[in-house]
What we know:
With 405 residues, this protein is α/β, with parallel strands linked by helices. Helix content is 39%, strand content 21%.
Amino acid sequence: MPSTLPEGEPVPADGRLPAAARAEVGQRPLSIYVHVPFCTTRCGYCDFNTYTASELGTQPGASRVSYVDAAIQELDLAVRVLGPGAPPVSTIFVGGGTPTLLPPDDLGRLVAEIRNRFGLTADAEVTTESNPESIDAAGLMRLRELGFTRISFGMQSAVPYVLTVLDRVHTPGRPEQAVREARAAGFTDISLDLIYGTPGESLADWATSLESALAARPDHISAYALIVEDGTRLAARIRRGELPMTDDDDLADKYLLAEERLSAAGLSAYEVSNWSTGPATRCRHNLTYWRSDHWWGIGPGAHSHVGGVRWWNVKHPAAYAGRIAERVSPAYAREVLGGEDRRVERVLLELRLAEGLDTTLLTESERDRIPGLITRGLADAVQDRLVLTVQGRLLADGVVRDLLD
Ligand SMILES: C[S@@+](CC[C@H](N)C(=O)[O-])C[C@H]1O[C@@H](n2cnc3c(N)ncnc32)[C@H](O)[C@@H]1O
Ligand code: SF4
């Protein structure tokens, strides 16, 4: 089951932003995330906001068929709330769930409607996530024709046992074939998602997954440590003793192996969990999150950020469709960050990037802690930026705790 939403302060029915946040519209790039909350089956480790057909049942509005129309109506709300100062959109990311359960033409309609309302920058990045078994060569061709520039496939592992523990339904080899099909369709920005640390996965299994992913020659790889989320089937199986719990030392060894193999193959880490063949193939959409730019999240459970205001939508597709039909904001609650909260958040996020943290963001007493981090081999000072070493990346959250007042 998807986890519950955080509480926050209420959002006005018309979605209006506080004046100070609205005044910041146009001062930073604008991105749009569209959440597609549908999957064929739920993977046992996943607590993302997604629903199978049987979970949705026949509740009004909760259908894949009517979803894109509801999402487009939220775009109209975004136009009203952001006002005439909204810049053209720099990146679009359609994520899930499994976006490619929707027909390519529906996904293309979303892109076209975003373009009609906001315009797109000349070099806009337009990504969709895809489960490799949910798309074929013809579908990939169509997505490319409809303006998608980037595709991210969920591969997770190349090892049959690991895929079974994760409840992944694709056969080994299909993600690599999907990369070839995407390349033939003209995509030059192709990414694979991998997960390491699945119970029972050996270091050799992880090496096999890395080698298989690299053999497909993607432009980008995301490698995530498995998080055992409360309330998932995986957590229940671990609690019952059917599977061993993930182990921090094992996760650290696997992270270091990823860094070694990926960098040897010419991919460098530009964020703790993300590697690319060069600056041009970084995921610019995800960089907007780490740089605290502005983004509007469309769809059930989607999160947004504009000018220090963060808000999140109601989670269930039926509740979302109901709000949209009543022409009220689908936002469930929001948080208005003060200056100090925004500074701490920037430290937390920018330290994850290879370009590092601008040390002028730190207080004097925080800056005094930098030499200690350098002596412990966790960070390097590069001009006026603080950049994590590989050891520091392993302990990124701890480094932030040690650094901040
Ligand atoms: C939420 S999925 C959406 C895309 C697509 N449905 C898929 O599964 O590939 C995005 C990525 O999040 C990662 N992910 C999901 N749950 C995770 C977990 N519990 N621990 C680590 N990574 C996770 C997976 O690598 C997945 O590819
Ligand atoms: S396919 Fe992706 S979003 Fe759907 S349940 Fe699996 S990990 Fe979660």
